[in-house]
Each structure stands twice: as C-alpha cells, then as structure tokens.
Amino acid sequence: EVQLVESGGGLVQPGGSLRLSCAASGFTFSSYDMHWVRQGTQKGLEWVSAIGTGGDTYYPGSVKGRFTISRENVKNSLYLQMNSLTAGDTAVYYCARVTPWIGSGFDIWGQGTMVTVSS
Amino acid sequence: DIQMTQSPSTLSASVGDRVTITCRASQSISSWLAWYQQKPGKAPNLLIYKASSLESGVPSRFSGSGFGTEFTLTISSLQPDDFATYYCQHYNSFPWTFGQGTKVEIK
Q1: Which of A35, A60, A103 is opposite residue B49, by nearest beta carbon?
Q2: A98 secondary structure, DSSP code
Q3: Quick one: how far is CA B66 from the chain centroid?
Q4: Residues in chain B within 8 Å Cβ distance of A60
Q5: By three-state DSSP, how is residue B2 classified?
Q6: Which of A108, A74, A106 is nearest to A1 (CA)?
Q7: What is the secondary structure of B9-60 as a DSSP string?
C-alpha cells in the first residue's frame, strides 16, 4: 500500500525549532518529488516547500530562510526543519507526493501532524 | 505570486444536483491545475489534475475543464458523499498556491 506517515509535531514556544519527518512506503521514494503543505485551524491550504528527485528545493516567501526541506532516499524519508517559529506557523503539516512524469498535482497525502506554536 | 480565486465560497445544493465551481488564476497557468476534495479532519484527496484528467479511482461524475486563467470543476449529479470542501491549486511555477476553498453544503 502506498503510504505517507508524518511525525514530529507538537507544542513549541515562539522562536523555537521543530523537525518533522515523513516516512514513505509502497513506492520508489527516490523517483518522486516531495512536498510539505500546511493548513491552519479552520483555514485553507498553503504550500510550504518542495524537493525534487535531484535535491533541488523551493519555498514560498513566508517560510524561506526559516524552513529547510530535505530527503534521505535510503531511508525513504522526508524532513522539514522549522526554525524561528511564530504563532502564524501553527497548523497541521502534511507531506505529499507529486508524480513528475504525468504532472499529477499532490496524488498521495499523509494524515498530517499538528504543530502548535504558543507560549 | 499567482493568485487563485474560487467562487462561490459556499454552495448549497441537493442530492442529484449538477454543481459547478469556478477557479480563476491571476495569470495564465496553461493546464497546470488540480482539484482536491477535503472532508473535516482528513487530508485532501486529488480529484482532477492537468485541468481535466480524472485521477484513478475518482468517480466519473467529477470532471474538470479550462485553460489559461479560467477553470471549472463539475459534479454531474451530487451524491451524499460529495458534501465537502473543494480546493483548486496551480502548479505552473513556484510558489504553488491554492484557492480559498468552496464548501458544498446540503440544501
């Protein structure tokens, strides 16, 4: 079964750091582009970061310089290092897969992990 | 950044109705548009990619159309399982952005 499972969420103080992980299974992880998408409580979806199969990375302005996406293909794992967190980063964070050769959009999502930034 | 605007924000409809949701991009995105369905407490689910391609396993009552800046998602005959929030999303260039969502409610 194709699956993504996030972990690492929790409560962190403003200015703090957190590292999210996403474990992939059921597909050849190294062949797919991977992304993080977040959703604030009762809010819409916001794309957070992307990493291509060659390790190229992309971020929106809201997190650039604070968040770092990385991948470890031998462990079938995706990561998101989040620094200098603010209340505005409070959200459910999803990892999501994109199938690059068909231009699929996010075709597989994890169940999400909650990040709460509060003192 | 490319802005995605959905309309309406909320839609009240009955089982069996034909439903259409519109998504407009602030500049041309060719066909690089996806539609998602999301139910409360769950991750989004891909319905349509490349504006009109139906994702595997998605019922054929869902269809997408459009090119450039204007797109539509149509549900040909609304079913009880379709009451949810729907999002469009462009992937023409980074940063990828989503529409604000359309909640489909029971009339």
Answers
A1: A103
A2: E
A3: 12
A4: 1, 94-95
A5: coil
A6: A108
A7: SEEEE-TT--EEEEEEESS--TT-EEEEEE-TTS--EEEEETTTEEPTT--T
Strands of A8-90, DSSP E: 10-12, 18-25, 33-39, 45-51, 57-58, 67-72, 77-82
Closest by alpha carbon to A84, among A70, A65, A69, A71?
A: A65
> Nearest CA to B86 among B27, B25, B34, B50?
B34
Q: What is chain A's length?
A: 119
Q: DSSP label at A54?
A: T
User: How would you write the pLDDT of chain B (107 residues) with one tens digit per residue?
Assistant: 999 999 999 999 999 999 999 999 999 999 999 999 999 999 999 999 999 999 999 999 999 999 999 999 999 999 999 999 999 999 999 999 999 999 999 89
Query: B62 forms bridges with which residues in the sheet?
Result: B75
- Contact yes or no for B88/B69 (Cβ under 8 A): no
A5 contacts on B by Cβ (under 8 Å): none
Number of residues written out for chain B: 107
Question: Which of B82, B80, B66 shows the shortest CA–CA distance to B33?
Answer: B66
Burial class of B35 by CB neighbour count within 10 A (0 to 12, 13 to 18, 19+): buried
Cα separation, A19 vs A17, in Å, equals: 7
Q: Determine the distance from the C-alpha atom of residue A109 to the mean position of all C-alpha atoms in its chain, rounded to a whole number.
A: 10
Among A35, A44, A60, select the one facing B100 at the smallest CB separation.
A44
CA B54/CA B40 separation, integer angstroms: 23
